[in-house]
Amino acid sequence: MTANFYKIQEIINEWNPIEIEPLLDDEYSFEVEYIVEFISEQKTDLTLLALRDTINEVFNQEFERFYTQSEQALAIAKKIMHVCL
Fold first, then answer.
1. What sign results for the dihedral spanned by CA atoms 16, 73, 60, 47?
2. pTM here?
3. What pLDDT digit, counting tens, does each position of 21-55 carry?
4. CA distances from 84 to 22, 26, 45, 71 (A)
5. Rounded to a whole number, what is the distance in angstroms from the first to the last CA of the chain?
6. 69 pLDDT above the threshold of 80
7. How far apart are CA 11 and CA 44, in angstroms?
8. Which pLDDT score is estimated for 3?
9. How confident is the model at residue 73 (pLDDT cuts 50, 70, 90)?
10. Which letter, b or e, does each residue of 12-39 get, where b requires 16 or more Cβ atoms within 10 Å of its Cβ?
11. Among 17, 71, 30, 18, which Cα is nearest to 49's?
12. d(CA 78, CA 61)
């Protein structure tokens, strides 16, 4: 795993978008990996809104019954961009 993976995992776990209790460290690993891949693919073309949309999309796909698009995803995208870029 890359350093960005662990940074993003920490941010996502702190957010805990579907409020899993108790939260395991690796609960959102698949979603974090998808976000890391998206960031790597975008390189210099990464935008805040595209990252927000990707975060919402991945959580909606994985947890559709428990997750609705969140305005918090924009703040999470900002945090991720701040620590990863």
1. negative
2. 0.92
3. 999 999 999 999 999 999 999 978 999 999 999 99
4. 27, 19, 14, 21
5. 17
6. no
7. 22
8. 83
9. very high
10. bbebebeeeeeeeeebbeebbbbbbebb
11. 71
12. 21
Contact assessment for residue 32 and residue 8, using Cβ atoms and an 8 Å cutoff: yes
Check if the beta carbon of residue 62 is closer than 8 Å to that of residue 31: yes
Amino acid 60 reads N
Q: What pLDDT is recorded for position 85?
A: 78
In sequence order, what DSSP letters do the residues of 12-70 get, joined into one string?
A: HHHH-TT--SSPPTTTTHHHHHHHHHHHHHHGGG--HHHHHHHHHHHHHHHSTTT----
